[in-house]
Amino acid sequence: MNGMRNAATAIALALSSVLAAPVANGQERGPLTLARASYFFVGGKIDTAIEGSPMFGQMYVEYMIPARRTHPYPIIMVHGGGQTGTNFTGTPDGREGWAQYFVRRGYAVYVVDQVARGRSAYWSPQPDGPVSAARMSFLDQRFVAPERSLRWPQARLHTQWPGDGKPGDPAFDQFYASQFPSLASFPKQQELNRDALAALLDRIGPAILLTHSQSGSFNWPVADARPGLLKAIVAVEPSGPPVHDIDNTGAPDWFKDAERTKISGLADVPLVYDPPLAGDAKLAFVRQDQPDKPDFVRCWLQQEPARKLPNLAHVPVVIITGEASYHAPYDHCTAAYLNQAGVPNTHIRLADVGVHGNGHMMMIEKNNAAIAGVIAQWLERQRLTERHAGR
User: Fold this and answer.
1) Whether 213 is catalytic
2) Predicted pLDDT of residue 390
3) Exposed/middle/buried for 381, CB within 10 Å: 0-12, 13-18, 19+?
4) What CA–CA distance (Å, rounded) separates 135 from 89?
5) What pTM does this model have?
């Protein structure tokens, strides 16, 4: 824990200088100068057994390569549930997104639309199953204005949504227009996107994987599929907590474990553990008797002796958590699960480094550039140069 506090303190000190600079504080200065920008598709196959011979399993990838590239490894940005890559290429109120932020800092950036989402076209019927869409009430409670419904204790701290967060407000309407149905099956989401992201890494080479929310469950199977090609994982409020999702019930109990059990603890698809699971053996889990702090959930961990995740052991991992998000009560459980499984990681609570008021959709909120600055500082501390490519 001392190491995590020291890392947060160092990032806070470094961030103070970043926030003082206009360009780092989200004030776009001058043209965005690119060497090239375009798109392509990876993965997928044509199924001639279905009428019309649709393609399925493909992933749309949009990229920007800066004219002055100063970092050897590109950043792959993967959006969460119900969203598309537009989460990273702009904001509902017209500001630049995280993609432009990191391109301006000298990174090549690849922004995807998940398989069967957005421009990764989904033909119906397909063997991947049905899709489902979030209702406006869900978006209001989880993303736009959690302070209005107070479904978890930290929700009252939310201040960073652009606009008033109601239909008719231009920023809200832009955000609502961007919502997209998702594959209903969590195992199928993870399987298809694991394979497509592995194909993307095969094409572009070693990279940093930045995920958000639902796509955070892809981190671990992608690391299994291409352990030598992931140079860092930036998990922005990754799908969690481990083992059981949380239903937010409001006061006085606040939290309830969902029934579904994630078969590999972190995901709904198998992961490589050491020692390996033999035959039909399953991981055994236990829940904390008491939460680590008031207003936190009780974490689920492996029953000791814990099995390790060897393909993640040498990949730098950071978990980013907003002050007011529904992840605030439980992202520490993901950090603890990884630590127990032999995966060192840094958990940064944004409030601890002076960035306050954020909900779950922090990449499009008013202070999105300050949060990108936190991520940039962490990446710079990893010293991901080609000379250190084995880290």
Assistant:
1) yes
2) 33
3) middle
4) 24
5) 0.91
Residue type, 367: N
Q: Write out residues in the chain with pLDDT < 50, as ranges.
A: 1-2, 13, 16-26, 387-391
Closest CA to 205 of 386, 318, 73, 110: 73
Instruction: Tell me the per-residue pLDDT of 127-144, one tens digit each, with 9 for 90 and over.
Output: 677 888 888 999 999 999
CA-closest candidate to residue 248, choices 380, 112, 141, 359: 141
- pLDDT for the residue 10: 52
CA distance 391 to 389: 6
Catalytic residue (one of 120, 213, 215, 264): 213
* Nearest in space to 152 (alpha carbons), one of 387, 11, 322: 322
Tokens standing for 234? Answer: 């930036």
Q: How far apart are CA 73 and CA 37, in angstroms?
A: 17
